[in-house]
Amino acid sequence: MSPAAASVEMSDLLQLTVDEGSSDLHIRVGIPPMLRIHGALTPLDLAPLTPEDTERMMKSITSPDHQQHVREHGGTDFGLGFGEVARFRVSVFKERGNIALVLRLIPSKLLTLEQIGLPAQVKELLYKPRGLILVTGPTGSGKSTTLASMINVINHERDCHIITVEDPIEYYHTHRKSVVSQREIGVDVPTFAEAIRRGLRQDPDVILVGEMRDLETMQAAITAAETGHLVFATLHTTGAAATVDRIVDAFPSEQQEQVRTQLSVGLVAVISQLLLVRADGRGRVAAFEVMIATPSIRARIRDNKTFQITSDIQTGAKNGMITLDAHLLDLYLKGLIQYEDLITKSVDAETLVQQLQDTLHARGK
Fold first, then answer.
1. C-alpha pair distances (Å), 226 with each of 26, 215, 316
2. Which residues make beta-bridge pairs with 167?
3. Residues in CB range of 20: below 8 A, 6 or more apart
4. 253-266 and 295-302 are packed helices; what angle lies between their axes, rounded to 10 degrees?
5. Nearest to residue 243, comparing CAs of 195, 173, 293, 283?
6. How far apart are CA 274 and CA 285, in angstroms?
């Protein structure tokens, strides 16, 4: 007989999430609490939750203001500290009239760029005096972790004023060699765009924009990068060319040529990433595409020839560049990912299969 859900406290579930090395905790009416472990959802050995259970659990961790937001808008997001053990990013939402929650565990220990798997040349970008560095990829691809690790490097090695604008704040950065000001949307400042505009008056060297989710924020981030600041931001795109196109296409047609020119000057790098389950099932591994803006790539952006960027990345290994397909192939040949992920996550599966066959043939396999 499964234990009754009514006897389970939220703190027990949070502790279990940490202990099991889970990335997410799902709480829904009609099913037991579920943990996402190495990418797979796993139900706990508990009775299915009732509407009263999920409401009680939600209220135990949610402030009155956020509860009010759920009532008025159907959902809310916030950061939650779990003692000294961990932090969680919490999403509360209503579904079929009931309360549901998803809690994402934010790793307490930041990885180095080498541990994440980024090329050594990426670290050099963190010493640039100005420009725009974009970290892109789908939800849950580890963008926040990569950005936090980059900010951590700057914090320890440069004497800067770093401003982060997040919704919600995920990683807490203590002042090291730099001073770090962390601002939360809805708590410290109303919008990303407003935070960037105000931030420019606060003597920043580095600005982290949690997400460029609208035209106003994109414009503010591009302007900040132009005016002598190193700006980091995220987008839900995959691949460098698609990222540039996504930004340009967000602007009205009469502004697009000007934006292309701004990006051709201000863009420093685009790092696209995916998180894949390791072939041995023990955790996950990141696959990257890294584009670093060379004079040739800047010209392609300016001349609206982004479709040619991939060929520049393919020949730019000496600059630390790699295409997503090349990195996927490398991970597969090292035995780190499954063949299925190699094919389904690739941009050009047909060419990749041919490259794999050629590689294996050259190795005499």
1. 42, 17, 25
2. none
3. 35, 37
4. 170
5. 293
6. 8
Q: How far apart are CA 341 and CA 276, in angstroms?
A: 7
Residue-wise pLDDT tens digits, 7-20: 688 999 999 999 99
Please report which residue ranges of 45-119 form alpha helices under DSSP H. 51-61, 64-73, 113-116
The backbone region for 290, taken as left when phi is positive above 0, alpha when psi lies in -120 to 50, beta otherwise, is beta
Distance CA 162, CA 207 (A): 6
336 token code pair:
């780190």
| Residue 137: Cβ within 10 Å count | 26
Q: In what helix (H) or strand (E) does residue 161 lie, and over which residues does it extend?
A: strand 161-166
Cα–Cα distance between 317 and 327 in angstroms, integer?
11
Residue (of 248, 247, 297) closest to 268 by Cα position: 297
**Nearest of 75, 82, 123 to residue 106 by alpha carbon:** 82
Is 166 in a helix, a strand, or coil? strand
Long-range own/partner contacts, residues 336-339 (CB < 8 A, 24 or more apart): 336/278, 336/279, 336/285, 337/276, 337/277, 337/278, 337/279, 337/285, 337/287, 338/277, 338/279
Q: pTM to 2 decimals?
A: 0.86
Strands 24-27 and 34-37 come out as antiparallel
What would the pLDDT profile of 234-283 be if each residue is shown by its tens digit? Answer: 999 999 999 999 999 999 999 999 999 999 999 999 999 999 999 998 88
